[in-house]
Design a protein that fits this description.
Number of helices: 19
CATH topology of the largest domain: Heat Shock Protein 90
Radius of gyration: 36 Å
CATH class of the largest domain: Alpha Beta
Helix content: 25-40%
Distance between the termini: 111 Å
CATH superfamily of the largest domain: Histidine kinase-like ATPase, C-terminal domain
Shape: elongated
Number of strands: 22
Strand content: 15-25%
Strand order of the largest sheet: 5-4-3-6-2-1-7-8
Largest sheet: 8 strands, mixed
């Protein structure tokens, strides 16, 4: 029995594969089972034209703790001695790839064969000192045994096997920093098969021991029986009408460790540039770490039922990172380790299709179950808005009709619904941005606009006003902040009266500006303040709320808007200011500070010196 040598370059490649290509030792079992599945697929293909090849196909696992061996056996097509030499003696020589090329016209019948590089088998040497392969080719009488201890070489000898198929025996390494004996434990094998190979379409069977009550007499006894460890048919490949809601929810809880039922389930079988099946879930609640860097977004990626990646981030844009689920495609071009893809183009095609599908599903949800959608939007709407902002507005056309905002009419509305319900003669869409609905609803500018009979959208997410600036218009209607000096909702008579009052009050306004110094850019009159003596708005593109958001970021603490102080000429405090300007200028200065501080508070900005503010209040109310 002569020891045959791998070629020098094959030795180097084998060493590279064992030590570098695979990032996780435990995937060796995925590779062996995938090869076994491919072998059965080949014989199944042959059985379509050769009835003698038909049989009950299966993959068997056996763990022998005393011998420290793990055995994986299939009853597939098997290999001749020459094929053992070719497929296992030559690294990166794939029998599966040859089979697919020879039977290219078979189309879908060979689509499920995913072994293409002939290297996955060698991942066994990450966990085994010695690997033995016993194989008998279908239609042949003889069996052969291939044995190797890795880079030292291999032998091929005669062997015996009752039926066609292949048996792989791993003699596990001694335990060191890695406890290799764990791969002989039932719970470990169950876990690995469940994680990586649950949807191999042939039963993966293992003899298991169970403690059961004795059939006769008292006590228990150990019963040994065959148990199928894999599900075989993926839930996402079953017809939707055949799967109960409870099954989807159970699958979701088990797969994604979320014991709240999903808020929405999306299934699809897509045919296009890349064919794929998907099963997607929208959670009821954000994961506990969703808004942290620790959160792992992305979908589980399968190729013909074999897990390729746990969190494939490239399948989802960031703003849809809350979606959980599965994508399975037989069209993927896998790389040498089956852990990543050769061509990003395929992922890109699937990602585009998925994004379109998810947004379409959200639109249907909005129409079909408004209450449930509003709950969803309250939890994840901010991330959709970030999608519009982070794309610099490029995704606004796809997203704008999915946004819902709370209105001063006491309900959530879409922009389309707002425009449909606009008062006759209303030119613009009015909004107010701030920290919460209660504060916004009490803003003087909001009460003034609603007094005119116009609804106001109350926007409470940090990103809202940034998105609005990018959107600019909806259905040719400008989005206008109630704090804007371009609202243009006054009557001609109101405009005339306001201008006359402003002209006559120019001296007072200049003195208020002088008293407040650089705190304000401008002081002007406004008849939009209702019962308030003063209000605060901003000049230029940077609004008060946008400045708050930016200044909260590290390094931006000094960013602030150009404040404009507005005074209500109809309020008694204005008359008091006129009086003090003429009779007591120091006290006039203190009144200006009081009016400015009150205006800051109405927009949610705390005074720098609260105690001084309290003193001013006491002075002017005493």
């Amino acid at each position: 029995m002569a020891l045959k040598q791998f070629k020098a370059e094959s030795k180097r490649l084998l060493d590279l594969m064992i030590n570098s290509i695979y990032t996780n030792k435990e995937i060796f079992l995925r590779e062996i089972i995938s090869n076994a599945s491919d072998a059965i697929d080949k014989l199944h293909f042959v059985s379509l034209t050769d009835s003698a090849a038909a049989r009950t196909f299966e993959i068997r696992i056996d763990a022998d703790k005393s011998a420290r061996t793990l055995t994986v056996s299939d009853n597939g097509i098997g290999m001749t001695a020459a094929e053992l030499e070719s497929n296992l003696g030559t690294i990166a020589k794939s029998g599966t790839l040859d089979f697919k090329q020879k039977n290219a016209k078979a189309g879908e019948e060979t689509d499920s064969l995913i072994g293409q590089f002939g290297v996955g088998f060698y991942s066994c040497f990450m966990v085994a000192d010695e690997v033995t392969v016993i194989s008998r080719k279908y239609g042949e009488d003889a069996a052969n045994k291939w044995t190797s201890k890795g880079v030292s070489g291999y032998t091929i000898t005669d062997a015996e096997r009752e039926t066609s198929g292949t048996t792989v025996v791993l003699s596990l390494k001694a335990d060191d920093d890695v406890k290799y004996s764990d791969y002989l434990e039932e719970y470990t094998l169950r876990r690995l098969i469940k994680h990586y190979s649950d949807y191999i379409r042939y039963p993966i069977i293992m003899r298991v021991e169970k403690t059961v009550p004795k059939k006769e007499g008292e006590g228990n006894e150990v019963e040994v029986s065959d148990e199928t460890l894999n599900s075989m048919v993926p839930i996402w490949k079953r017809k939707k009408g055949e799967v109960k809601k409870e099954e989807y929810e159970s699958f979701y809880a088990d797969k994604f460790s979320d014991y709240n039922p999903p808020a929405r389930i999306v299934t699809a079988s897509i045919e296009g540039a890349v064919n794929y099946n998907c099963l997607l879930f929208i959670p009821s609640e954000p994961p506990y770490d969703y808004f942290t860097k620790a959160y792992k977004r992305g979908l589980q990626l399968y190729s013909s039922g074999v897990l390729i990646m746990d969190n494939c981030e490239k399948l989802l844009p960031d703003y849809l990172g809350f979606v959980r689920g599965i994508v399975d495609s037989a069209d993927l071009s896998l790389n040498i380790s089956r852990e990543m893809l050769q061509h990003d183009r395929q992922l890109s095609e699937i990602a585009k299709s998925l994004e379109k599908k998810i947004l379409s599903e959200l639109g249907k949800w909005l129409k079909e179950d408004r209450e449930a959608y509003e709950k969803f939007f309250g939890k994840f709407g901010q991330t959709l808005k970030f999608g519009a902002y982070e794309s610099f507005g490029a995704k606004i056309p796809q997203l704008k009709d999915l946004f819902v905002y709370y209105s001063t009419e006491g309900k959530f509305v879409t922009l389309k619904e707002y425009v449909t319900g606009m008062k006759e003669g209303q030119k613009d869409i009015y909004y107010a941005a701030g920290s919460d609905v209660t504060t916004l609803g009490s803003l003087p500018q909001v009460t003034a606009v609603t007094a005119k009979g116009y609804a106001v959208l109350l926007m409470t997410d940090n990103v809202d006003e940034f998105v609005v600036k990018l959107m600019d218009k909806y259905d040719e209607k400008a989005l206008r902040s109630v704090s804007s000096d371009k609202l243009d909702i006054e009557t001609d008579e109101e405009k005339k009266a306001n201008k006359e009052k402003a002209d006559s009050s120019k001296t007072l306004l200049d003195e208020v500006k002088t008293a407040l110094g650089t705190n304000v850019t401008e002081v002007r009159l406004s008849n939009m303040l209702g019962e308030y003596p003063s209000g605060l708005t901003a000049k230029g593109e940077l609004s008060i709320e946008m400045a708050k958001v930016l200044s909260a970021m590290p390094g931006n603490e000094k960013i602030r808007a150009q404040y404009v102080l507005e005074l209500n000429p109809a309020h008694p405090m204005f008359a008091l200011a006129e009086k003090l300007l003429a009779e007591d200028k120091p006290k006039f200065g203190r009144l200006c500070v009081l009016l400015y501080t009150e205006a800051m508070l109405t927009v949610g900005i705390n005074p720098e010196n609260p105690s001084e503010f309290v003193k001013l209040i006491n002075e002017f109310v005493s």
